[in-house]
Structures are given as structure tokens and as C-alpha cells.
Amino acid sequence: MPIVSAGEARVDYQVRGSGTGVLFVHGTGFGAEGTWGHLADAFADRRTVLLPDLAGCGATEDDGGELTVERLAAQVIGVIEDAGGEPVDLVGFSLGSVISATVAATRPDLVRRLVLTAGWAGPDDEYLRNHMTVWRALADDADAFGRFGTMTAFSRNFLNSVGREQLEGIIQGNRPTEGALRHIDLNLRVDIRDLLPKIEAQTLVIGCALDNTVPVPNSRELSTAIKNSSYAELESGHVVVYEKPAEFVKLVQDFIFQD
């Protein structure tokens, strides 16, 4: 897999398929493969799919310091430039939406279309602030950290549908790694409200109606703040890429395959 230097980081990323680039940006704690790997082939038959691991995930290495939106955006920009420098369709999930919006606002020359899923813009949502604060405080209890993160990441219906054995496996995979904790710390500081009016790319914002991690009004507010933005909402918990994969893929395909 290619590795590109971006600031203080050496960013590891996957490349699949061929054609116009579509880059997927993962969220808190889980890297590109864990977030997007099961969906990538739905795009790789028509596009070059780029799957970077941001600092704190996978084989990407950095100095271990405090993460900022700007540092992670620079890592995405580095991957786009390393892959040829042509404009890509940029698809973000959760924290990845925050990063993707930042890239689109600061480097409009690199973003063709933009998809923001289950994202947010600033620190005003007290539910979100308290959620992240409690999650971060559970770092010393791996089981509680995993159960809280899983319980709020998925809707009740999804949790009840997968069976206890599979659910326990999901919980075990949701661990308080150093990278996950660095991401949560960043989540508590995020504020990109001043950047949203600068986004020029045609944008699709996807909200999750049953989201207990980043409540859906945050997605609606993102859409309102971005010109040339359309909005869609799915009946899903936060991790829509697993709860409603087919519906999510269709929304994104219909948006980025318009021409």
C-alpha cells in the first residue's frame, strides 16, 4: 500500500479500482478498512477508491501529539496529491465528515463533490459534548468503553437484530486505543463553523434519524450552512455504513455518478 508524508505523519492508504478518484474518510477510532472496506467494491468498478488511515489508525504513523482538524485535513490532502492531484469525490463519516468539510473549504481545487455523513460543525450541542466526555472518561474500563460506544453507535433495533454473540464481538472490537482516545479528544474541540460558507463543491449531507452519538439535528445544521447542499436522511443509528449499507451506497452512488 502507498505511504505519503503529510506534515509530521506518514499516511498509509489503499487504492482500489480505476477512474475518477473517490476518497473515503473514516471516523473516530476505526480506520479505513474497518469503516469502508465492505463498501469499497461497490465503487471500485467505476472509480479509483482511496482509503487512507488517519493518524491514530492502522499503519499511519505520526508524532503522537494532539490532533487538530487541520493536521488530519492535511493528511487527506497529501493522499489526494500523492494519488495524482486531480479533484476527487470526498466522502466522510462522523469525524471524517468534519475533516472532509475542512478539506473542501480550504482546498476547493481538490474536491469535485462532497458527501458528509453523520457529521457536526461545532461545540454547541450539549448532548454531543457530554457523550464524548463520558466515553473518554471510560478509557480505563475497556469493557464499559466498548459497551457505551457500541450502544450509542447503533440503533436499538439493530442491536437486537444481530444476536448476542455478534454483538459481543462488536463490543470487543470497540476498544479504548490510544488513537481512539486522541480522536475523542479532538471531537470535543471541533469547530468548523467559519469554514462551512467557504465550501464550493456540490454537497450531499446524510443524516441518521436514530443517531445516539451525533444527533441528527447536527447534520441538518451542516446542510443549512453549506451552499449547493442537498440533504437526505436514513432511518439508522450513527454507524449507517453497517446498519443501512445498501441504502447508503445508493445515495452516494446516485450523487457522485451523476456524470
Automatic annotation (TrEMBL):
InterPro entries: AB_hydrolase_1 (IPR000073), AB_hydrolase_fold (IPR029058), AB_hydrolase_sf (IPR050266). Keywords: Hydrolase. The keyword Hydrolase applies. SUPFAM superfamilies: alpha/beta-Hydrolases (SSF53474). GO terms for molecular function: hydrolase activity. It holds the Pfam family Abhydrolase_6. Residues 22-250 form the AB hydrolase-1 domain. It comes from the Bacteria. This is Alpha/beta hydrolase.
